[in-house]
Amino acid sequence: MLRQERLGATALLVLDVPARRNALAMALREELVAAMEVLEADASVRAIVLTGAGGNFSAGADVTGMNVADIAGGRERFRISHRLVRLLIESSKPIVAAVEGWAVGAGLALALCCDTIVAAEDARFMAAFGKVGLVADFGLLHTLPRRIGEGRARQMLLHGAPVDAVRAETIGLVDRVVAKGGAQAEALVLAGSLAASAPLPIAMTKSFLSQGLAEALEWERTVQSMLFLSADHAEGKAAFLEKRAAVFVGR
After folding, report:
1. How far apart are CA 63 and CA 106, in angstroms?
2. Residue 129 and residue 135 in contact, taking contact as beta carbons nearer than 8 Å
3. For residues 229 and 68, is the Cβ–Cβ distance under 8 A?
4. Residue 96 host element (H or E)
5. In whole angstroms, what is the distance from residue 174 CA to residue 119 CA?
6. How far is Cα 29 from Cα 26, in angstroms, rounded to an integer?
7. I need a surface site. Which of 41, 68, 82, 179 has the fewest CB within 10 A?
């Protein structure tokens, strides 16, 4: 499910589940954790590119796998996810995301765990957690406001509307827009430039900018674990799977 390549001092990680639009099932998250732990310990790796196969970055969490029976189960689910978030955001290596097609929910959050985002002109971004009765997670409440400001983040999080690549670049959600099919190539060029830079200043800068992450992750772990047990989440998940409008009741 996760393909890895080495291109000089740059490591390329490819989410490779195109039939599911690279949905972040727990098994794929575990593979990413294992890969990042190895790359972080490898001094010969100076930059990382993260992308998705099949024309999409990631459709986000696998809704069919959201089967949480109690708060303890919810908190355990986040133990793995938050390990991945911390490995990405707190990594000493610069990470470039190459986004083609959709980056939705946890897929959007995964891209925002990276330092630089290159988007193809067909890229679309969305944070519609509320449609399944949940709050944003995977560190998104930490990363999104820092990227685009609290006001714009509030609109993306509350309304859940898609944002196209042009708009994303305008508001600072992405750093560069390229032609369809060209995101990975451009990301590798940028990663090569970063790999040639002094690694210690990059590591120290990333460390400083990650302040506040731990508090945000603990909040989402507690709140989301409760929301997993709510009637509205059950309704939102059922509506998603049945391809119908959800009817929420606030409990």
Report:
1. 11
2. yes
3. yes
4. strand 95-99
5. 7
6. 5
7. 41
The answer to whether residues 1 and 27 touch, using CB atoms and an 8 Å cutoff, is yes
Q: What angle do CA 50, 110, 121 make, to 5 degrees?
A: 65
Q: What does the block give as tokens for 39?
A: 């790359």
As given in the structure block, the two tokens for residue 20 are 């599911």
* Amino acid type, 245: A
Q: Which two tokens stand for residue 138?
A: 């995977």
pLDDT higher than 90, residue 74: no
pLDDT of residue 46: 98
- State the Cα–Cα distance between residues 17 and 166, nearest whole angstrom: 27
> Nearest 5 degrees, angle CA 168-CA 23-CA 206?
55
The CATH H-level superfamily of 2-181 is 2-enoyl-CoA Hydratase; Chain A, domain 1 (3.90.226.10)
pLDDT digits 0-9 by tens, 115-135: 999 999 999 999 999 999 999
- Sketch the domain layout of the chain as residue ranges: 2-181
CA gap 131, 112 in Å, rounded: 21
Helices (H), the chain: 26-41, 71-89, 106-112, 140-148, 150-159, 165-171, 183-195, 199-209, 213-227, 231-242
Mention every residue, 6+ apart, whose C-beta is less than 8 A from residue 17: 1, 23, 25, 28, 53
Query: Could you tell me which of 117, 96, 109 has the C-alpha nearest to residue 10?
Result: 96
Dist CA 202 CA 92 (whole Å): 7
Structure tokens at 85: 């978030």
